[in-house]
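Summary for the lay section of the report: proteins are chains of building blocks that fold into shapes. Here we show the chain for Outer membrane protein beta-barrel domain-containing protein and then a coded description of the shape we predicted for it.
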Amino acid sequence: MKKQTLLLLICGILFVLLTATSQVTLAQENTEKTSKALAFSSGDLVFRLGGGLLVDAGEMGGILGLSLTNELSWYLSPRFSINPSLTYFVSLGDLDGNYWIPLTNSDANLQEFTSGLFTDARFQYDLIHTRKGFRFGVGFGPSFQLGGSAFISSFSPNEFGEITENWRVNRIVRLGYVQQLVFDWPALKENRSHRAVISMSSFENYWPFYLNVSYRFGFKL
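The coded shape description reads as follows.
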């Protein structure tokens, strides 16, 4: 694993720890102000929308990106739910244009850009449910990815003797699985909720291929 990838993963883990700590604090503060704890029953539907940071630690060698997610939770019991979701992700290099900067150092990471869609069908069980409404759950399920990546594969002189970049474009269509750690706590308004998710996606026998930390705001339908 390249040093850049390792550094990005360490930053992601530190961000996760800080997020988890803040979640506990926010849960305690919010539940003191809300009159009704976060509770779900069989048949409840909750729609969630949010975003976060993603690390592509697989074939791209370690790239930070942004993710946008919408999710529908269907509760079969107060603790067990089915959670189909759709997530769009894009590398930060695509947003600021840095991926157009040529890299000629042979030791440099030439991977430049990646984007795509994840669609998941996750089965989740809440292991912890406190009286004040804080929940902690684990999820697992299949994940389908559709997307692409582009990077400079080599450099070569053109007919005028100028060095040009040769780009390689990969189309990605693959099936894998996703594992998640899920934190829920109530919002100030009834039938609203907060959720923080740590997602680890595996593809082609590589884990985690993607590490995604996101926040989602929920609306009980």
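Put simply, here is one thing we learned. The first strand starts at residue 45 and ends at 56.
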